[in-house]
Specification:
The complex is a heterodimer of chains A (131) and B (368). With 131 residues, chain A is mainly beta. Chain A has one helix and nine strands, in the order αβββββββββ. Classes of the chains: A mainly beta (131), B mainly beta (368).
Chain lengths: 131, 368
């Protein structure tokens, strides 16, 4: 009996929360077309993706608590990827998927107009991101 | 008891991992709060800034064009025009012109094209100008404003940053749709056109206020009112002019001054059967008299690709002038012009103002 309980608890743990600890933090986008740094952070018991810096040549933004931009206000794990779980992200950004490549790199997929745009995110040095 | 605990744990595992389905975002029609910039005060220099051949890199949705160009030239005293001819995939243009919008003389943009038999044009109005870090301009959907779509351009030194943000005509949150980063490669062609038309002048190219018939706006399926200043029609075997009429486009292709047409008919020999054809219009020769390639590819102005064994292509909205036309068969199928590809000796064509021209290329037989 105890073995069954331990087995099922183990299945639950490994199937649902295996790489969560790597996700919070600042992620720099590697793109020819724009520069951005996004921060995965826990807000109101949800995992959110803040826009800390964005510059596509015409639109520039630095994180401002009075004017908050989010890539997503809530992402959730779905199979092996994190997906946008909100009904509407903030302006200029589509629904996203984040797929882990390694402990310090992600592939971000933007789902827009029946196409998938892929870009590489590299993690910045760790800080305490929940402040 | 054991069964109950195991069932409970299994249920916990399943509910922890339960999927959350994405929901469709449907927004209410936007309130019209567009404030056009009066070009008597500012913003008129957009027309001058836009002039020239811009060469750079372009991302359109999921497509990444590592080499891309727009050739902007005046077609009247207050209208500059540029187009991307994609070939089999369709085309996409954006023109900028002086117009009236709700009584204000301003600059508007007409953006659209023909894609898979679907004709679309959308109209934008200049609502923001900032000259603090280069010259910045924003043009927003002339009906739905930034709730539907907009484009931003920033000129700094010889660079252009051109972004467009769209929303499936208001059905989803706007996202960045196109990002064109470029440098000005050539101004000579634009200067010739500007001199010819005494461009730029603060005079109406079109009066959008008078031409607009609101009943012609495209309305999304299942909705009762339009969200966007967009006009659409569809027909795979219908001419672009006919589609313009069917869409109720306020400004049709057949009303444009200056621009001509070129029909290219290509003979495919067995060596290039089923190969992708690059149909290039340039202001410098891309091949010599024997058909061997020259390193002048930065002079390419239009670069449609023909797939599916197609043998004809119609250039529309074509600036008048002298061009070299070069058809290159992608023999090695690497997706680029490269060694091993097959082309032909140097060939020229002159496009007259409002001209309708035809050329046949039957000698694509020189392997490089």
């Amino acid at each position: 009996m105890k073995k069954w309980i331990l087995f099922l608890l183990a299945v639950s743990f490994f199937s649902c929360s295996s790489s969560d600890s790597n996700l919070p933090g600042d992620w720099k986008v590697i793109s020819f077309y724009y520069q951005a740094t996004y921060r995965v952070v826990e807000e109101d018991s949800k995992m959110a993706v803040r826009v800390m810096y964005y510059n596509d040549g015409t639109t520039k933004y630095n994180w401002n608590p009075e004017n908050r931009w989010y890539l997503s206000t809530e992402i959730k794990k779905k199979n092996d990827v994190y997906v946008d779980a909100t009904t509407g992200a903030s302006k200029q950004f589509a629904k996203i998927r984040l797929k882990s490549i390694s402990s310090d790199s992600l592939e971000m997929q933007t789902l827009a107009f029946n196409g998938i745009m892929k870009e590489l995110w590299i993690k910045n040095k760790p800080k305490n991101y929940n402040k | 008891m054991r069964t109950t605990i195991i069932f409970g744990l299994v249920l916990m595992v399943l509910t922890n991992c339960m999927k959350t389905e994405e929901e469709t975002i449907v927004k209410k029609p936007a309130e019209n709060s567009i404030h056009p910039v009066n070009i008597k005060d500012k913003g008129f220099d957009l027309l001058e800034n836009m002039q020239g051949q811009w060469v750079g890199r372009n991302q359109v949705m999921a497509w990444d064009f590592e080499w891309f160009t727009f050739d902007y030239r005046a077609i009247s005293p207050s209208h500059t025009f540029g187009i991307f001819e994609g070939g089999s995939m369709g085309n996409l243009f954006t023109s900028f012109f002086v117009s009236n919008y709700k009584g204000t003389q301003t600059i508007m943009a007409r953006n659209g094209g023909l894609l898979n038999g679907i004709y679309r044009t959308s109209y934008f109005v200049l609502d923001s100008v900032n000259n603090s870090d280069g010259d910045f301009y924003r043009l927003v959907d002339a009906l739905g404003g930034t709730d539907v779509m907009w484009m931003e351009l920033r000129f700094k030194n010889d660079s252009l940053y051109f972004n467009a943000y769209t929303s499936r005509l208001g059905l989803v949150t706007p996202v960045r749709h196109m990002t064109f980063v470029a440098k000005k490669e050539n101004m000579e062609l634009a200067q010739v056109a500007a001199q010819k038309y005494q461009f730029p002048q603060k005079q109406l190219a079109w009066d959008y206020d008078k031409r607009l018939i609101e009943e012609h706006y495209y309305i999304n399926q299942g909705e009762s009112q339009a969200r966007s200043a967009t006009f659409m029609s569809e027909g795979l075997n219908t001419s672009v002019t006919q589609l313009a009429y069917e869409a109720g486009d306020p400004i049709r292709i057949d009303e444009h001054p200056s621009l001509g047409y070129l029909q290219v008919d290509i003979e495919r020999n067995p060596d290039i059967e089923s190969k992708t054809l690059f149909v290039l219009l340039s202001y410098l020769p891309l091949t010599d008299q024997n058909g061997y390639m020259l390193d002048n590819f930065e002079s390419v102005l239009l670069f449609p690709e023909l797939n599916n064994n197609e043998e004809t292509f119609l250039f529309t909205y074509l600036h008048p002038g002298d061009y070299y036309i070069t058809v290159i068969a992608d023999k090695n199928e690497d997706g680029y012009v490269s060694a091993g590809d097959i082309t032909h000796p140097q060939t020229t064509i002159t496009i007259e103002e409002l001209g309708q021209h035809q050329i046949s290329i039957r000698n694509i037989n020189v392997q490089n």
